[in-house]
Amino acid sequence: xxxxxxxxxxxxxxxxxxxxxxxxxxxxxxxxxxxxxxxxxxxxxxxxxxxxxxxxxxxxxxxxxxxxxxxxxxxxxxxxxxxxxxxxxxxxxxxxxxxxxxxxxxxxxxxxxxxxxxxxxxxxxxxxxxxxxxxxxxxxxxxxxxxxxxxxxxxxxxxxxxxxxxxxxxxxxxxxxxxxxxxxxxxxxxxxxxxxxxxxxxxxxxxxxxxxxxxxxxxxxxxxxxxxxxxxxxxxxxxxxxxxxxxxxxxxx
Length: 253
Hints:
Layout: E1 13-19, H1 25-37, E2 42-46, H2 57-67, H3 73-83, E3 88-92, H4 95-101, H5 103-113, E4 117-119, H6 131-137, E5 141-146, H7 152-161, E6 166-170, H8 184-196, E7 200-204, H9 210-216, E8 222-225, H10 227-235, H11 239-249
Parallel strand pairs: 1-2, 1-8, 2-3, 3-4, 4-5, 5-6, 6-7, 7-8
């Protein structure tokens, strides 16, 4: 079989993704360090949730495995503390977890643990019970989501209102996990967003290969890879294995 030849990319940057405590705290810590050593600028740590309706089977199963153990929210904050000196850590969770825990309490613990920002997929503008205001007060960014079917007026509203330098761009409708075909419609969508804002565009949902990354390099400022890394962790959670997986995704090996 002919060996694949890749060309290392100077851009885009990478946001790797892990599930807190999958398969356990120590192994998720080792895997996370491997992703960062492999060149990820950001590491997204997902707090396991039993009703993660935007997540595909790979992430749902990993969340379920963690939740069947003795996982508590403070375990996620501990993971952030253990990793924050290694890179920029983003906590990803769903709004109900924060509301149940207490908005101010959650924001303060995330900030004190060293979280660079938050991703909350189900948090619409104007219906956040003061969460964005609390985050702003404590100088922690909420990375807002833009979706393919969103009206341009709504996109402009989000861009105008968010102080965060990053926008999370959902590549397609549906759930995570399935490989996204990078066609002209996605590239046109990204080109349009680049005309609307100078913020860094982080594109995710189904990014699983160097070939996809190389197509997106002139459109995306940051690649977000979730199911790809959870699958790799399931195979081998060692630091060395995840470093190699990261380098492979970005064409560095």
